[in-house]
Amino acid sequence: MQRIFCFICLFASLALAHFELDSFQVYVDSMVPGSRYGLSIRSVKTGLELGNIRGVEKFTPASTLKTLTTATAIHYLPLDYAPQTEVSLNGSVQKRTFVGTVNIHGAGDPNFSGRYYADPFHMLYAMADSIHALGIDSIAGELALDTSYYAGPWRAEHWRKNFYDAWYGAEIAPLGFNDNCTMIRFKPGANVGDTAIAEILPDVGYVVLKNEMLTVPGKKRKWTWALDSAKPEITIGGAIGIGVDSSQLVLPVRNPIAYFKAAFIHALKERGVAYAEKKNVAAGIQIKNFMFTAAPLLSILDEINQRSQNMHAETLFRNMGAQKTGKGSVESGRALEMKFLAEMGLDSADFEVWDGCGLSPKNKVKPSTETALLAKMARHPKGRFYINSFAGPGLGTGGKRMLELPYPWLTRFKTGFIGEVHGLVGYIYALDGDTLAVAMYLNETGKNSDAQLKDVLDTLWTRLVLKANDSYASLMKMKQMWLSAQNVAGLAARLEYFSRMMKGTPYRLGPMGESYLDSIENKPIVYMDSVDCVTYLEHVLAMAIAPNENAIAPLLQKIRYKDGIIDYVHRKHYLLADWVGEGKFARVMQVPGDTVVKRTMPRQSFFKAKKIKFSTPDAPMDLRYLPYDRAVELASKPYDGPLMVTGVAFVANMDNLDATHTGFVVFRDGELPVLRHAAFKKRVLELPLKDYLASRKGKLPGITLFEFLKQ
Hints:
Blueprint: H1 21-31, E1 36-43, E2 49-53, H2 66-76, E3 85-94, E4 97-105, H3 122-132, E5 138-146, E6 181-187, E7 197-201, E8 208-211, E9 214-216, E10 221-227, E11 233-241, E12 247-252, H4 256-270, E13 274-277, E14 286-292, H5 297-306, H6 310-325, H7 330-343, E15 351-352, E16 364-365, H8 367-378, H9 383-388, E17 411-418, E18 421-429, E19 435-443, H10 450-468, H11 472-484, H12 491-501, H13 533-545, H14 552-560, H15 575-580, E20 586-588, E21 595-600, H16 603-609, E22 620-627, H17 628-635, E23 644-651, E24 659-667, E25 674-678, E26 684-688, H18 689-695, E27 702-708
Parallel strand pairs: 4-5, 5-13, 8-11, 9-11
Antiparallel strand pairs: 1-2, 1-19, 3-4, 3-14, 6-7, 6-12, 10-11, 15-16, 17-18, 18-19, 20-27, 21-22, 22-27, 23-24, 23-27, 24-25, 25-26
């Protein structure tokens, strides 16, 4: 037989993933020497870890820590949760003037910005319009901003000092505007030597800009900036060439509460409501209150996991603490995350949490625990919302990463980066129907360039995607072929159609295996570029009996593996003893003149050669076949009856083997039976059955015909 199919072991066996992880470490060592690499790969379906490198060592996760923040939030908060900002008017309206206090209570809405709306003032305008709609065109009194929802500090602790001067390190507050940042746009002056032209966007009269940048010849770009540690003052210096069009900087603003107040007053003015501050106004009754929300939880998750917004992560971190414990603080957020991990059955000691976004270098996580978290969240009732918040090739922080993947929709991930730290965690959808939870970290990266580090992680991630989906192109071929046969009805007609459509497919011995699921034959699970005699049968049968194109892969695995469990020991190796003998997809046909003999398949020695222990004694089987002369006689007579397509096994001469070859026999009314088979060292072809039998005279005792069963 061109391919021997061994017995399915009757004892429980766990597939061993085969990703050649040693080669991953070798690649890291060669490309980014000195870096410490961590990796964990876990099955979402089973929860079992399939492999790791330093999986139980702790790594700094950078922004991949956001996966814990968002997992905790989506677990405890309702999907329609949205931070609410309350505006209440306490006082009285005298003519068209409100006299009293406008109270604004913040609850950590990070979206008063241009992220969801064309104008960053959109929500502030809505507030101003609601007041104006009451017939108010001026306010005489106080604007009271209630920040009690959060317990300080406004700056996240344990960040590196320079982070506080970058847009991604903006201060955190229960009231915020424009990501608590401002943009400085500048361009050269009219003449060399002039001070550059600079503006603040949006300018609400709060940030003070000190412009010391000079215009110089050419296209020189060498500017500097500095932020006051406490006051909203920004100084820009250096030089900009007169040939430069323009440039810009996005920088954080000190004291976001005061920034929000200035922006709100600006919005009031823009919408026709004048504000005149008046201290010690008399307390009055509440005449009106409004609730405003910019975006719901799922949109916030997108900003955190897809675009890695630190301010959004830090506000959500505090918000979920406030929602569940009554206190919005780092401590309450951390305590809630530890409670969540315990509820998920994960060791909270494996996560060292100091913030919600991952900027602190003191944050630590074990890769194996991170994938355990990801796997549990994939099985969570809200898991699909969680996974959909992740980035991917061409999406969010993956906008420029892994764009060369042929099937970019097969992975979603969260990126992470701070000094000497890179992380990449997320999901890979595998062809076998499983999802892989993966975590990769590079720490202690030293002088290796960030671009190189990203490329290393992307390369290794791509290897995993391609290996877990090494059958994807072949499955797409099968689906297209299935769709072409939607008008072909009846099992016989469908078997005839698909066996004919695969004519010409090149022959290759043993083209399929268990992919990444087993180490013995880690070849693709589905492979249509070449077939051998048995895989030809398997592919055709799967397409013929599948009720829809999405059922092909699961059916193929049930045809090929005992109970559909994809590993070497569950594969139906012996054709008649196992593949047909199982009786689920085919059964031996009784043909006049056939005979039955006893044969014993040497399962113990077969598996021993693969270093697999098999303790059940070998037992004899009944092998029914039509003797050679009778088979020639059958093949030499025109068939009388409706279309019939059967399988055929060419019985082995050896007593320790059931068959040496297989294929389809097509019986058409008034015609000689035709054999379609994957011919050794050739391709899938057809010829009269009698001609093939003539070529095998003296080399086989006979044939076994078997019928395929409807499902």
